[in-house]
Amino acid sequence: MNAPAAPSRPEGSAARRLVRPLAALAAVALPAGFVALVDPNTPGHYPVCPFLRATGWWCPGCGGLRCVHALVRGDVPTAVHDNLLVTVLAFGLLALWAAWTVRAVRGRPGGGGWRLTGRQAGVLVLAVLLFAVVRNLPVGAGLAPPVG
Q: Residue 4's pLDDT band (boundaries 50, 70, 90)?
């Protein structure tokens, strides 16, 4: 007869378990803070997208810096207008980070171990490619970032 498994105890203190989520937050917040301070809407602060320069087409990331600038200032409508894909991904990553942080505080395993399945990765790549194509068509002109 097997003895019941002992309940798993969280390893370390809550502060120790928060090191990784807080490090991830800092890794994102520092560059986002820079973009908040150095306005990408002002010409000359950032280089032009090399894909846009070479092809004349908007890449999936075009308008992303303007989007981040708007997001860190709390202007979601402008962020959506600048780059819908980056806005959706930012909120998705924020939700994943929040879940990771809550799991870390509660001492539950697997907080930072979320992985994309092959199917999820394929859907994500397909969505990014579809976004890139549609924003360059007349029907998707509203998905293109503002010019200037």
A: low
